[in-house]
Request: fold
Amino acid sequence: FIRDLDLYHEYRLSGWMIEIPFQLHPLSPQSSFKYYETHELDTLLPILRKHQLPYSLAFTVENPRNVPLAQASIDPYFTDISGMLLRCMKARYFPRYLIFMGELCKPAFSKGKLPGFLAQVKQEFKGFEGEIVLAATPAEWLDSDYLWPLAEVVGICYREPPELEYKPYFMRINRQLSQKLIQYQKPALIVQTNLVGGRKLLLFKNQLRFWDEQTELRGIVLNSLYCEFPLADQHTHFGLAGEQEFKQYLKRYTAK
Reply:
């Protein structure tokens, strides 16, 4: 983290996103997190506070084993997330955004309990003055109206485009999302870019294009699926360290 601070400042980034994943397990109704155990947040939050670095805290429940959501309980994950938020209160350093994504945002998993939990967070997470982001794929936002009234900010999780030609795909998707954002009068935040393959810069540019001028796009999070800082990562297909053209463009873009 300390090593990556220089890159953070060099590219004039506006904050960090810390993504905390939980996994549904077919043999247990609970996640593996134990509040009394040491957690990475115990180290990260004091560092962020010391350097006065803005950050967002993202929670996602993943389902790699395809556990039937109708049989899973969301309550243990609400308990675990509450424990994480207490760590923020203890550190006296609060996120700019609280982001919820993955199975947490699916009605089959939340079973109507998500609105009550979000209201509880707003009421009891003392000191938090940021906004709540609910994040889903473009298709999930376009196919359902369930999340729209609940989100203060609409979080967008891009996946690798199903079409080889990026322009027509993003022209269609981003324009459709723009109309929904205007309809519900919500700002948007791209929380997952998933820049992969040999055309990362082209993919990045198209994710930022075709938005209606009336929409408010708050920001875009660079690859966030691994703990390695993407601009320092040379080893995974999400890494951006070797993408010289991309880094030059990013530096120009953030300098505007």
Summary: The mean pLDDT is 90. The first strand starts at residue 16 and ends at 23. Residues 17 and 56 are 5 Å apart (CA to CA). The chain is about 35% helix and 15% strand.
